[in-house]
Design goal:
Helices cover about 25% and strands about 25% of the residues. By secondary structure, the chain is an alpha+beta fold. It has two domains: about 160 residues, 3-Layer(bba) Sandwich (FAD/NAD(P)-binding domain); about 90 residues, Alpha-Beta Complex (Polyamine Oxidase, Chain A, domain 2), CATH 3.90.660.10. The strands form four sheets. Strands 1, 2, 7, 8, 9, 10, 16 and 17 form an eight-stranded mixed β-sheet that branches. Strand 8 and strand 9 form a beta hairpin. It is globular and about 65 Å long. Bound molecules: flavin-adenine dinucleotide.
Length: about 325
Amino acid sequence: MKPTGVIIIGAGISGLLCATELRKAGKSVCVLDKGRGFGGRMATRRMAGGRLDHGAQFFTVRDSRLQRYVDQWLDAGVIKEWFRHAPDDSSEAGHPRYCGINGITDLPKHLAEGLEVHRSQQVVSVARDVNKWQVQTATGQVYTAEHLVLSAPLPQALSLLDTAGVNYAGADLSELRAVRYDKGLATLAVLDGPSGLPQPGALKVSEGIVTWIADNQMKGISPELPAITIHSDAAFAELHWDSSDEVRGALMLKAAEPYLQANVVEYKCHRWGFTLPVNPLPYAYYHNQSLRLVLIGDAFGGPRVEGAALSGIEGAQVLLQS
Ligand SMILES: Cc1cc2nc3c(=O)[nH]c(=O)nc-3n(C[C@H](O)[C@H](O)[C@H](O)COP(=O)(O)OP(=O)(O)OC[C@H]3O[C@@H](n4cnc5c(N)ncnc54)[C@H](O)[C@@H]3O)c2cc1C
């Protein structure tokens, strides 16, 4: 493969916004992702004729740098406001909660247009030569670049960097290694009628194993069929990580039952090895100038979509200045 300016590992929101900023500044950028789609944890899937967001449910914006992008995405018809006043959460009342028009993955898909993104390319090792990075994928492809940006959840990014056998973080390594993520389970279910959830079809649950129930039809992304997304807490996910769907899915549906007025037609579970970082780092990226290496993602500067997005934007700026 011909050398490029920057390789970004990961086509989640942080990697895609980093790539967008770098392209705007004239850099040649190649993004690699192991997934079949774009967006990482901003994920939408189809099931039995329904469409469901099974990772991130919505995002909020407080920073003007991201607000500028959000205004463009609203104008382009990529995202919409889902709701503003959370029924059970007065602390955040008033902030618009944005979602994709047809699913949260609309946004990463939109960002990937015009970028060079290679999907189904799991990076298995990275190596630093005198003045370039060499990245190898599971399919045997080799990519080279002057700069390397890693945007995978931090423990995965560090495992990859370990394959290079270089000292990439010195005394900072223990701080980077200390970042931990919660696991999560999502149960996705198609119903035989309206869910009965109150408007806007988003319910934060504060007791028991279920933390969240969303009605994707009320959200507007599953017009044909009522379909719900249920999220578990981290303790339940740990306990039932290797249980069958018949066990863990049934337990989650039972916990959600009091909130629903319809029957489940079909369900599936999805395991999330990394939901949110428990102890994110208080800076927006990690930069090793001599190695031309930048680490970004939601482990830096704040969890959630906005934190990851800003990490991507700031990571691009530091790379451009180096
Ligand atoms: C269940 C759940 C619910 C959530 N709810 C919300 C919410 O409502 N609001 C909110 O703001 N946030 C929410 N979040 C968090 C939010 O989704 C993340 O903070 C954000 O999407 C992280 O983006 P990122 O770019 O840092 O990482 P990711 O989206 O994880 O992107 C990293 C990418 O790296 C790729 N990758 C990893 N390893 C390799 C490799 N070896 N080779 C190639 N590619 C690789 C992955 O495939 C992935 O696409 C939720 C997350 C989960 C899981």
